[in-house]
User: Fold this.
Amino acid sequence: MKIIPLLILLFLLNSIPALAQDIFNQNNLTAWCIVPFDKLKRGPEERIAMLEKLGLKLLGLNF
Assistant:
């Protein structure tokens, strides 16, 4: 009976790299808290264009 927990543990450890790969997939990335000012004095539309150029589709804000 001790072999079943060991098999479960081995299965879970084997699936960690696949899980990590899915988490950091480009579709899961979010630009977090893009500040409303920078050296180039970009406006909102220019910041969105910058994110699109980087391939990011999600933006998170913290107010």
Remarks:
- Residues 3-60 form one domain.
- The chain has a mean pLDDT of 79.
- The longest strand covers residues 30-32.
- The helical segments are 3-23, 44-53.
